[in-house]
Amino acid sequence: MSLVKLASITKKMTIASVGAFLLVFLPMHMGLNLCILREDGGEWYRNVCHFMGTNWIVKIMEVVLMLSVLVHVVVAILLTIENKKARPVGYAVPSKSKTHAGSKWMIYTGVIVLVFLIIHFINFYFVKFGIVVADDSDTYTVEVEDIQKHLNDKVTELQEQMMNGTLSQEQAQEQMMALQLEYMPFLQIAQTGQPSDKISKDGEELINLSKEELKQFVGEDFTEYEPDFYTMCKKLFANPTYSIIYLFALVILGIHLFHAINSIFQTFGLNHRKYNKAIEYLAAGYALIIPLGFAIVPLFVMFCK
Amino acid sequence: MNLTLKIWRQENARAKGRFETYKVENISPDCSFLEMLDILNEQLVDKLSHPVCFDNDCREGICGMCGLYINGRPHGPDDGVTTCQLHMRRFKDGDTIVIEPWRARPFPVIRDLVVDRTAFDKIIQEGGYVSVTTGGVPDGNAIPIPKKNADEAMDAAACIGCGACVAACKNASAMLFVSAKVSQLALLPQGRPEAARRVQAMVAKMDELGFGNCTNTYACEAECPKQIKRSNIARMNREFLCAKVCSEE
Q1: How far apart are alpha carbons B237 and B34 in whole angstroms?
Q2: Residue A187: is it exposed, middle or buried by C-beta count within 10 angstroms (0-12/13-18/19+)?
Q3: Which of A28, A83, A172, A208 could pair covalently with B171 via S-S, beta carbons 3.0-4.6 A apart?
Q4: Do B26 and B1 meet the contact criterion of CB atoms below 8 Å apart?
Q5: Which pLDDT score is estimated for A197?
Q6: In this complex, do B215 and A79 lie within 8 Å of one another by their Cβ atoms?
């Protein structure tokens, strides 16, 4: 492992720069989350989720982000192992030295944040990929075009079977009628733009279907569809246990961030009487505003809805 | 003052150590901490047992030889002083004082409270000096040096190499020591020509010897008897980055 052989300062600069990248990601994620607060039945939030799930730039950045988390975690573990090895026999009296707030607990706060991140992935991120299947009661967001396409596919299949002679003309026509009846409600709603719980406000493109309804016309491929993150999110945060875990993780994240930001500047040698105070305020501000911004969503769902 | 002392006793580097409890009585509050240990040792010698070994030399806070981990703090409860400058008036009658040696893999215990700090010398040997003879004292202001640089270099050079930074650091990192040595030369024109090579060599040696990594906890700065500042660590990080990016050495 050549990573092990890197100089201590190089390793620290690696973890710091990767951490700095993660710091850029947080305000963006927070901004997207806050879209849920808009009183529009989740239109903005669904659109944002759809954008984040389909845009190719986002997809590239997702890979970069995951690699960053991986590098951050691997280097952190490596540094911690080296640090523990540097003092094989410990002190009988625990240290009473003054230290920078949060600095002694970075690996522990880091581990808690990582554990939370995994829970968070299971609840949201993996659902997007269909690795984790959304709850039965969750609804899915499907484009009308897709439903149309599925109907057309099935019709073509029937026509082929008719040509081959596996089905008689009467049988085929019967099945085609059945199909049209089955698909009618969804297509009609979409085409007429009639307001309904199955259709989002902009009416044209997206319809929200229950898992059963979705299974009806796409079969077992339903996991390929985006679940409706708006209802999913509200349902999760309505659970006080989940919300409290979420809020606890945010407090821990704040502690991690406060030392992290101070640390990044120090590690890159940016320590100067002129702006040391500014760095301290920047770190405190960021470590306060970001967790607060994230905390608004569960608090809003728990108390205002 | 009557005190209870819990002192780390260890026969030699390979032996397994343990804490021994001793009682000392009628200690004057004006005694220095090391004088208090001297009194204990006299008692031990009278009883024909081995005295407690501890490092010391000048006993006026400038040589860097003494260094004990007292009640969870290197050099004891006072800020900015070495163990020899600590006085018993800082303790209360009836106190229990726990005395441990510096703990770090590169600082193995030789006996009792004495540790081997050769690791620091090895780091200095990697370039903590100007490698050419610079001749006699030049005329004043022959080489212009900003006052601020001269002051900062002097502050960094105040490091006495006692190892309290390593002892205080939760990672047993030597960054404050190494950065003080790098800084005192990097700030002055005489040190610049070799700066890039120096910082890389000294950091490499520090890593090789098994010191931990800096996590910007700043316990070192809080415990340094010479109050060497963390800004030196930042300067070393800067020097290191510049050397890696710009230098061909």
Answers
A1: 37
A2: middle
A3: A83
A4: yes
A5: 46
A6: yes
Report the relative pairing of strands B96-100 and B3-9 from DSSP bridges: parallel
- Neighbour count for residue A163 (Cβ, 10 Å): 10
Three-class secondary structure of residue A150 per DSSP: helix
Q: Candidates 1.10.1790.10, 3.30.1360.20, 1.10.10.60, 1.10.1060.10; correct CATH number of B117-246?
A: 1.10.1060.10
pLDDT value of position A225: 66
**Predicted complex ipTM exceeds 0.90:** yes
C-alpha B22/C-alpha B5 separation (Å) is: 5
Closest-CA residue of chain A to B210: A86
Mutation pick from A17, A93, A265 vs chain B, by most beta carbons of B within 10 Å, is: A93
Strands (E), B29-123: 69-70, 73-74, 96-100, 109-111, 114-115
The residues of chain B that CATH labels 3.10.20.30 are: 3-111
**Four-way CATH pick for B3-111: 3.10.20.30, 1.10.10.10, 3.30.230.10, 3.40.190.10:** 3.10.20.30
**Cα gap B77→B115, rounded to integer Å:** 21
Over residues A265-281, the pLDDT tens digits come to 999 999 999 999 999 99
Characterize A191-226 residue by residue with b for buried, 16 or more Cβ atoms within 10 angstroms of its Cβ, and e for exposed: eeeeebebbbeebebbbbbbbebbeebbeeebbebb
CA distance A92 to B220: 19
Residue contact A87–B233, C-beta within 8 A: no
Residue B4 and residue B36 in contact, taking contact as beta carbons nearer than 8 Å: no
Rounded Cα–Cα distance for residues A19 and A73 (Å): 10
What is residue B22's three-state secondary structure?
A: strand
Q: What is the pLDDT of residues A132-151, one digit of tens each?
A: 665 655 666 666 667 777 77
3-state secondary structure of B6: strand
CA distance B178 to chain A (A): 12
Residue A141, H or E segment: strand A139-143
Which segment of A57-66, A115-124, B5-14 scores lowest on mean pLDDT?
Answer: A115-124
Contacts of B213 in chain A (CB under 8 A): 8, 11-12, 79, 82-83
Beta-bridge partners for B97 = B5
Q: Which has the minimum average pLDDT: A278-282, A300-304, B243-247?
A: A300-304
Residue A118 · residue A203 · CB < 8 Å: no
Check: CB of residue B197 under 8 Å from CB of residue A79.
no
Rounded CA gap, A134 and A124, in Å? 9
